[in-house]
Automatic annotation (TrEMBL):
Molecular-function GO term, any one: 5'-3' RNA exonuclease activity
CDD domains assigned to the protein according to its UniProt record, in alphabetical order: PHP_HisPPase
Gene3D superfamilies in UniProt: Metal-dependent hydrolases (3.20.20.140)
Pfam families: PHP
SMART domains named in the record: POLIIIAc
Limits of the Polymerase/histidinol phosphatase N-terminal domain: 6-75
Protein name per UniProt: Polymerase/histidinol phosphatase N-terminal domain-containing protein
Residue ranges of the TM segments: none
Source organism of this protein record: Aquaticitalea lipolytica
Length: 259
């Protein structure tokens, strides 16, 4: 095994709020030195499969893709399945976990302390025992949530501490990397058996945003119910704006978790 740089939480345009094209994801991964990327779109695996096809069609062999899905459970909790191969529909948290396990996937709890994280779920005590990985750093949220997750994971030594940028547009990908010794010939197995003490996570801490934002965001999104043509236009225009705005931005990542 050798050290790899990975990001375990990334979205493509397959997510309703995702603005990352396959070309942009590849480009930003190369810029960040990322060798392994988990594509975890909201309620679909189409983005992950699409990136695999794009890499093959463009003869890109230097980026490993983990097929994932960030499932929105019926109680609002988000749970990620990694190393899956079939779409998992919304259901109660314990049923979603069961579906991930039936595919021999890994159960990964993203932004666990946030309003839509597993720590807020009524099923937490049962679900946490069945989990495989815990997101101890998410570059998209207020870092207070990350610190709460880091304090919580010490109570559950069976969980693998991981981090992700929760990238929804290009520059997000640059905001978090994990350094882990892995074997790409047996990526899932080596992740499960890795020495957790040697996992290092580097990220850009965010100090804005709170739980109230997310409830407001989803209420507005549901009420707007924008036509598909408007959504498609947004997915084209918004990335152009964000990429132009942050075209010269460089992020100095710090070690945010190394225990």
């Amino acid at each position: 095994m050798k050290p790899y740089r990975a990001n375990f939480h990334t979205h493509t345009t397959a997510s309703f709020d995702g603005y990352n094209s396959y070309k942009a994801i590849y480009s930003k991964c190369k810029q960040a030195g990322i060798n392994i990327i988990a594509i975890t779109d909201h309620d679909t695996i189409d983005g992950a499969i699409g990136l695999l096809k794009w890499l093959k069609n463009n003869n890109k062999k230097d980026l490993e893709v983990i097929i994932g899905e960030e499932v929105t459970c019926t109680d609002g909790t988000h749970i990620i399945g990694l190393f899956i191969n079939k779409f998992i529909p919304s259901d109660a948290p314990l049923n979603v976990i069961q579906q991930i396990k039936l595919q021999n996937g890994l159960v990964y709890f993203p932004h666990p302390a946030r309003k839509d994280g597993i720590m807020q779920s009524a099923f937490y005590n049962e679900a946490i025992k069945l989990g495989d990985a815990f997101e101890v750093f998410n570059a998209k949220i207020n870092n207070d949530f990350n610190e709460a997750a880091q304090n919580e994971i010490v109570k559950h030594p069976h969980l693998i501490p991981l981090g992700g940028s929760d990238a929804h547009y290009n520059s997000d990908i640059l905001k978090c990397v994990c350094e882990i010794n892995l074997d790409t010939k047996n990526l899932k197995g080596s992740l499960l058996s890795c020495n957790k003490e040697n996992i290092q996570i580097f990220g850009l801490k965010k100090q804005s945003g709170d739980n109230n934002y997310f409830s407001t965001y989803y209420k507005v999104k549901n009420k707007l119910n924008l036509p598909q043509i408007v959504r498609n236009l947004g997915k084209f225009v918004f990335p152009l704006y964000k990429n132009f705005k942050e075209r010269n931005t460089s992020y100095k990542l710090e070690n945010v978790f190394n225990k």
